[in-house]
Design brief:
The protein has 637 residues and is α/β, with parallel strands linked by helices. The protein is built from 18 helices and 26 strands. Strands 2-1-3-6-7 form a 5-stranded parallel β-sheet, with helices on both faces. Helix 10 (306-330) packs across helix 14. The termini are far apart.
């Protein structure tokens, strides 16, 4: 209290003599106290109810004409009260203190003289009590606020002691971990840590004790039996004089799964590019092997000793060609002839064939959506996917089981697109092929679509079945996913974009001709010398004039010097440019020229960019007869 402060006191007393004695006691303290008097409880209540009263202290007699001072001990009246009693009424005064009075005095002249000091002491005590009360209210408000946060947060909040035992766990543990928060109290937090993360967890624990704050990412066991990924902020603190650690953890399992999906997509894309490049180079080699072998067989009689070896070479080349076809399917660069089809009809047509692929111990079941949308797909490729998946399922169920093929309509929207990062939002047809076989562990599942990866014994599989399925589905603009656990079977889920019936089939048909000879001029552009030499030899043998070039500059020069050129026979991929760009330049200068492409891919990445030229493609490896037939068809068109 300062000298500028004035304390307003309400004196409630009906004895005028006592009032006068009290007034005299306060006369010497007029600068500090402002004394008001009420003779009855009613009068006092009137003064207290006035908005401008602003009293700081009540000094009240116990016995009043209209009641007793104890009636003023009301929680709604937050003022300190000093009760005055007569001699012998100390028991009542003590009861008044228990009921909420701040102090009491026994009436006497000395007590009245000392009343200003009692009042000052009472004000200080009251203000201390009020300060403590406000602090407690603030603490309760803070506690309630933090309790509200911890009890409603989606993150996990925990307090651990120095031995990493739980001292507090937020209620979110039930949602995040499947455990009641109270059941975790006292348990070692490391008990449910993923085994491979325990060493990391111990190291982080040492770090947090030394550096006071750190972060950690680890897997924690969920009551359902699964492992959940958590990203945690960890801080070392002192609680009640003992070291402790506050952990705030966020479940990032969905994010980790999405990251793994994206990494898998990137890895498969990289493998696809590699496989496509390898297959392209092999097809160039196979084109030479196949062509030269065919020419050699035409030069020798059937009873020649080398005929058997040449036939073996041809058969080996055919097997190698089939292998590169599968690699190109994985790289989604195979010949693509899409058309609107109904998967239900395709599955029903294949049901007899699929039944022959599996033994009698395996039951084939189909669950087909009655009003299934159409998809735009190459039916031959989708049949290949179903056959590959059925064979894999058969091999996983040596002791019998159930193979289930199901279809349904599906909509990928903003709520579900995170599950399929490679798909755009829209309408899809979902195809699932599931079995009750042995299943796969996580490492095998993650590598299942890699080319040449197989868990079968040597000679039992090439490891290209699922890789081929992957390439086919991706080329269709869809997505393929595989879920499996050891002992729980495998489910392959495929999404294909919905097709509208207005989409037309753009596949080409190629006629055959009996006469394979000609006299036209052909500009042959091929950077592989062996393939170029073979093609030139085959064409010249059948009467054609062949101009050979290894790149676009040589081709343009030859076209200017030797006119007319009737046909451009070019590889899709040539140095510094592409066959399609070269064709565009030549057809612009020589509109009459015909175009035929060769490729080691079954479909080139830039083939959709053709502008001036929309020419057919001859797939490597090809036989001499296939080359001659295609050339003759193009020239005669």
């Amino acid at each position: 209290m300062t000298g500028l402060e004035q304390i307003r006191i309400l004196l409630i007393e009906d004895d005028e003599l006592h009032i006068e004695l009290i007034r005299r006691a306060f006369d010497a303290w007029q600068s500090l106290f402002d004394l008001s008097v009420a003779h009855t409880l009613q009068e006092a209540r009137t003064l207290l109810s006035h908005s401008s009263s602003g009293f700081d202290l009540i000094v009240c007699d116990w016995r009043l004409p209209d009641g007793d001072g104890l009636e003023l001990l009301d929680p709604s009246l937050p003022l300190p009260i000093i009760l005055m009693t007569g001699y012998g009424d100390e028991r009542v005064a003590v009861e008044a203190i228990r009921a909420g009075a701040l102090d009491y005095i026994v009436k006497s002249q000395d007590a009245f003289i000392d009343l200003p000091h009692v009042a000052q002491r009472a004000i200080r005590q009251w203000r201390a009590i009020e300060a403590q009360r406000r602090s407690e209210e603030t603490l309760r408000a803070i506690e309630a606020r933090y309790r509200l946060i911890t009890e409603n947060t989606s993150d996990l909040i925990a307090i651990l002691d120095e031995h990493h035992r739980f001292r507090y766990v937020s209620p979110s543990a039930m949602h995040l971990l499947g455990y009641d928060a109270e059941s975790l109290i006292g348990q070692d937090a490391f008990d449910n840590l993923y085994p491979d993360d325990i060493l990391s967890g111990a190291r982080y624990w040492q770090d947090v004790m030394q550096r006071k704050r750190t972060t950690a990412t680890f897997r924690y066991y969920h009551a359902s039996g699964s492992w959940r990924w958590f990203e945690c902020d960890i801080k070392s603190v002192d609680i009640d004089g003992a070291p402790a650690v506050i952990v705030i953890g966020r479940d990032i399992t969905a994010r980790r799964e999405l990251e793994e999906r994206l990494l898998q997509i990137q890895k498969m894309d990289a493998l696809g590019r590699l496989s496509g490049g390898i297959a392209h180079d092999f097809n160039n080699l196979l084109a030479v092997i196949t062509g030269c072998t065919t020419l050699a067989r035409e030069l020798i009689p059937d009873d020649h000793p080398a005929t058997v070896e040449l036939r073996e070479i041809q058969q080996a080349a055919e097997r190698a060609t089939a292998l590169t076809r599968q690699l190109l399917a994985f790289a989604h660069r195979q010949k693509f002839d899409p058309r609107p089809i109904n998967l239900n009809a395709l599955i029903l047509d294949m049901k007899k064939l699929l039944s022959r692929l599996i033994p009698e111990t395996i039951t084939l079941e189909t669950h087909l959506e009655p009003d299934l949308w159409s998809v735009r797909a190459d039916p031959g490729q989708i049949e290949q996917v179903l056959i590959n998946l059925a064979v894999n399922a058969r091999d996983a169920m040596n002791n019998g089981g159930i193979l289930t093929i199901a279809t349904s309509n599906a909509v990928i929207d903003e709520a579900t697109d995170h599950l399929y990062p490679s798909l755009q939002t829209g309408e899809y047809v979902r195809l699932t092929v599931s079995d009750t076989g042995v299943g796969m562990d996580e490492i095998t599942r993650q590598r299942a679509f890699e080319p040449f990866f197989t868990t079968k014994k040597p000679g039992e599989g090439t490891g290209l079945g699922l890789a081929t399925c992957y390439g086919i589905i991706v080329q269709h603009g869809g997505a393929i996913d595989l879920m499996s656990e050891p002992g729980c079977g495998t489910t392959v889920t495929i999404h294909l974009p919905r097709a509208h019936l207005s989409q037309s089939n753009t596949s080409d048909s190629t006629a055959h001709t009996a006469d394979l000879n000609g006299s036209e001029t052909i500009l042959l552009v091929e950077d592989d010398p062996a393939v170029r030499a073979l093609a030139a030899r085959v064409l010249r043998t059948h009467g054609y004039r062949v101009l050979e070039a290894s790149n676009d500059d040589e081709a343009m020069t030859l076209a200017r010097l030797h006119t007319p050129v009737h046909l451009l026979l070019s590889d899709h991929g040539i140095p510094h440019t592409s066959g399609t760009l070269l064709a565009d330049r030549l057809t612009l200068a020589h509109p009459q020229i015909r175009v035929l492409f060769m490729t080691g891919y079954m479909i080139e990445p830039d083939s959709l960019r053709r502008t001036a030229t929309d020419a057919p493609t001859l797939l490597k490896p090809f036989t001499p007869r296939e080359l001659l037939q295609k050339v003759r068809v193009i020239l005669d068109a």
